[in-house]
User: What shape does this take?
Amino acid sequence: MGIEGYLIVSTLLFGLGVFGFMARRNAILMLISIELMFNAVNLSLVAFNAFLTPGENTGAVFALMIMAVAAAEVTVGLALIIAIIRTRQTPEVDQYSDLKE
Amino acid sequence: MAVVTLRNIIHSAVAMMICFGSLAGMYALLGAPIVAAAQVLIYLGAISVLILFAIMLTQAGDANLPAPFHRQLPLAAVVALAIVGMVGWAVVQTDWGLAAEAAGAAVDDIAIALFTDFALPFEIIGLLILVAIIGAIYLARRPEEDERAN
Assistant: This one.
């Protein structure tokens, strides 16, 4: 399988992430969609590293760093979501409309 | 994949774990075993367990599952399809030409690069994770607990 296969898989995964982030109402599922987008970018980085610059390792190092940042981000995000759910009693994002009135 | 379409959020999380596992397999196929190992450790191990715990803490029970989609569903579908269409068209149209076979880097090369060329970003990421842990503990703490502490 060439680089196109990996890149198309990565594109589809990113599109799924965008769709899930915009269409779902549950806050945790929006976070899962963000993780999907992170993974799509990681996959394309590793694919570019393996095919365009074989023998170098910059893409793999970038992918590892993105993973670390994603882990930090999901930690803070889940803590925020749990704090919001504790005060609002619902994970549905379209009911967080207190500032609208 | 079924991650974004399933109604029950626990099913979505399990589908996400399957997706992460297959991505680890793709990293191994691409000749990046260290990235595959990190994927299994971080995503399959840490993030999935974290998300499942959050679902467990927040879900009151799946007796009354509300409609899963926002009312901006058509807009979201259009935007996602546009992104996939444009990037996919670019991928297909580009003549990549070189390197038909995947060749990854060795594990010890990545380790040496991580601690020499990328030493400063490595330390910054360590600091970022420390800040994130402290922030998460502060945010997720129950308000009555610090009243008790005072």
